Amino acid sequence: MTTLPDGKEPVTGDSPALRILLVDDVQENLELLEDVLAENGYTALFAKNGVEALSVARAESVHMIVADAMMPKMDGFQLCKEVRAIPAYTKVPFIIYTGNYVDTADQDFARSIGVDRYVVKYAGLGALVQAINELAQQCYGRRVEESQSTQDQLDDQEFLEKHRAIVIKKLEEKMAELEMYAETLVRKNREVQASEERYRSLFDHASIAICVLDRSTEKVLEVNQAGLDLLGYNRDELLAMPRLPFTSMDFAACLRDATKFTSGDMSLTRQDGETLQVDIGFGPLTRAQDTRILVYMRDITEQRQMRQQLMQAEKMTLMGRLAAGIAHEIRNPLSAIALNLQYLITKIDQYPELREPLQDALEGTKRIETVIENTLNLARFTPPVLHEEQINDLVRQVLGFVRISVQQKEVHFDTAMTPDLPPVHVDAKQIQQVILNVVQNAIDASAEGGRVHVSTGIEPWSPAGGEETEVIVVRVRDHGKGITVEQRKHLFEQFYTTKKGGTGLGLTISRQIMEKHSGEIRFDAPDAGGTLVRLVFPIHS
Known about the structure:
Layout: E1 19-23, H1 27-39, E2 43-47, H2 50-59, E3 64-67, H3 76-84, E4 94-98, H4 104-112, E5 117-120, H5 125-140, H6 146-149, H7 156-205, E6 209-214, E7 220-223, H8 225-231, H9 235-240, H10 250-257, E8 262-269, E9 275-284, E10 292-299, H11 301-346, H12 355-379, E11 387-389, H13 391-401, H14 403-409, E12 412-417, E13 424-426, H15 428-445, E14 451-461, E15 469-478, H16 485-489, H17 506-516, E16 520-524, E17 531-538
Parallel strand pairs: 1-2, 1-3, 3-4, 4-5, 12-14
Antiparallel strand pairs: 6-7, 6-10, 8-9, 9-10, 11-13, 14-15, 15-17, 16-17
């Protein structure tokens, strides 16, 4: 039987467990092999390279050695040669367990220097355990013939030559692996560069303004195109500025103290001097104490104006409701005043000099009644009562209402009613109120002896965001001064008027009525002058 290095008898029968020296430079491999060997009744010793393994072998009783082929300081082949030079270890089983040396030449070289078994890692742990069990049976369970255990030994020169050839071959393989890794690294670098270009493109083409600022100096380090468009500067001008043109100086303190993303409203001044309200969000670019601050800006000037308009609309609604509460108290005495004035006018023939003041007073009562009615309409949110109506009939009735106004101003009406129009689904009283308001505006805008054109027909129409469809259109055209671009911006604002004595409520109410009827009111400025108003109604099927 095999003699142990400490001179003790070999393990047989009920002797203590065999002690196997595991040599590997990877700690995880040692721990895995220890668990596997313990399950099979073996005790493990450890070394991380050949030099350390020799020290363990000289100090401990080792019954078998399992070593990796490639290790720092001393590889498995050199370790086997050194172990076989120790008299007590000439016949101790030695196993090479590797994932690199797998060809026939490597195995032949291993056997020539005294390796008992050559096990590759991809064969699995089962192959290693089987090899250990077989060698334990051979060397410590039964006598082994001298001729079976004797290995052909190489002299030092031949060992060095063969060992050098194998190491060179493996280094070449490692170089090939490094080249592959280098190619992979180049590919990864290209992917990182492409990713950076994508993020740069997202930054440059984002629809929201984005800036990168220096936390301490507040200077702009980078800005996208949307930021330049918002602020009105070119890139060089903005990067040269000491800070962003915010009107509030508290922004600097907010930047210095920002450790997380923060948002709020702020005012800034564009390059052209216009003041904008912006929704701003800012925070560290990456870490909480990053010296760079990422700033997002979105123009909310128009939204704020709309919000103010809504607040104004709420106030006007409240005013209308209050007016509804006192309208009864005003209308009763107002009606009495109007009746008395009318009576006085019929009896004033003997005092002709008083007729004109009485007429003016009566006209004033009518104007007060109109203001009350228009103000009340602001508070009325009753839905329209819809019926099938002929738009031509509604227009003719309205033209009858304005006959007196037409005669007083000697305005000539040209009408062109398209016959047999499809019915419209409307509240007749409300639509007559809209048509009357538009026609009366045309009369007021016309000079004495002027002309007003009123026509109806079917036209193709493309609503905002919708497909083209056919609609019924009422067109009212005057030849007055027309509407300026600035006036057109305020046409539907409450109490905005260009007429002397106007209330500024007629068009506001008219648009509300048209919207309730899924219709539309549009103003155009014809090349020949004047104003063209279109009232658009969907066709009721």
